[in-house]
C-alpha cells in the first residue's frame, strides 16, 4: 500500500515537471479575454431577456 502511494506521488511529481506555466503577460491577456467574453455574453443574455419579457407581456396582456 505504501509502495503504491509512493509510486503515485512520484508520478505526480513527474507530471508536474511537464507542465508549461504561462508567463504573467500571457496570464493577463487571457484574463482580459475571459472578462471581455463574459461581459459580451452577459450583455447578449440581458438583451435577449428584455426582448423575451416584452414579447411575453404583450402576448399575455394583449397590448
Summarize this entry quickly.
Helix content is 87%, strand content 0%. It contains two helices and no strands.
Q: How is this structure best described in words?
A:
This protein is mainly alpha-helical and 63 residues long. The chain has a domain at 22-63. The chain contains 2 helices and no strands. It is elongated, with a radius of gyration of 25 Å.
List keywords for this structure.
mainly alpha, 63 residues, single chain
- Describe the biggest sheet? none
Mean pLDDT, nearest integer?
94
The strand count comes to 0
* Rg from Cα: 25 Å
Q: What's the N-to-C terminus distance?
A: 73 Å
What is the general shape?
Answer: elongated
Reading the helices and strands in chain order gives HH
Count of helical stretches? 2
Question: How much helicity do the residues have?
Answer: over 70%
DSSP strand content: under 5%
- Overall SS class: mainly alpha
Topology:
Layout: H1 2-18, H2 24-61
